[in-house]
Write the structure tokens for this entry.
Amino acid sequence: MKENLNSVLFQKIINGADDGFAYCEILFDNECMPNDYRFLIINNALEILMNRDIDSTLGKTIKEVDPTVEKYWIDKIFSAVHANRPVNFTYFNTNVKKYYRVKIFMQGLYNFVMTFDDITKEIISIEELSFQNKEKEKWREELLILNKELKYQNTVKEKHELELVLVNKELEFINIEKKKHTAKLVVENKKLQSQNYENEKIRLELIAFKKKAKESAWLSSVFLSNMSHEVRAPMNGILGFSELLKSPGLSVEKQLDYIRIIERFGNSMLIELDFLTSLFNPNFMKFEEVINNNIYSNLSVNQLAIQCNMSLSSFKRKFAEIYNVSPIKYFMKIKLQKSVELLKDKKNLISNIATDVGFESLTTFNRSFKSYYGKSPSKFRLDEND
């Protein structure tokens, strides 16, 4: 009677537990090796976990209850028998698709107790957390890459902004200088245009006089009279700007501008004198000497041909034989190469460089430079200084 009461009380206690509980008996084969076990006591929780009622399970072996039981499960059960110590492991039941935390410990020589804890939600939560952590790490790496790209773009942007500031400063400086010289240049340009017109007119007359010089001796005196005007024009320019250099309070930049103008007039006068000398000297200058002496002048190809005592077509043909390029392209290349050397010195204004290498205007120089080098003179200077 007392044993029955204890059995009923024990059954109530284990039925109140949340974990599955089973008290089992070990069964042996003919060679005394454990190969199966029988359920002696199970609780309601295990009944739910196994999806079987207690009455159809009690007294039956695991192989009778579940003929498809996995060998892995049997081996785990009997590992506790051989080790004679508690065994804990996680088991995934493929039939019900759930994870269990299983604890097995011996009760005597032939009996053992099993407890089952459904940890499916816990495992899924861990797996989900692991997946989220991997996704988080992936997002973190992508964010690092994006941050590096953004940092690089910001660096490039700052560099471009700095370059733009430098270009704007250069443009502002050029505009200021341009405004300062505009009033003076307007007057001087008008004078020069008038002088150039007269010079060209006289030059055409001189060419005609040259053809007739051999026919009549008196043409020589007339020719020299006209040439005196050709020489006086640049001489007057030299004298005029020399007087301007004496003006009190004249800035260094103005002095340099006037000196460059005087140099141009001087070179022009030398060219005219060389031209005059060549007309009366039976030994004309060598072809290359004429070219080298006039690289930075504004003489036309026709004027150079006259200095070489050649027709225009003969001059171009000989030029191509020596330099393998046309006169215009050759002079343009030499002038632009010279301008590159001058641009390396920040003290040289771009407008002055254009004049020094023989360009008639800053606009023509900028257009020719960009066409040849692919960038403007100011941008070229900025890149060189970087």
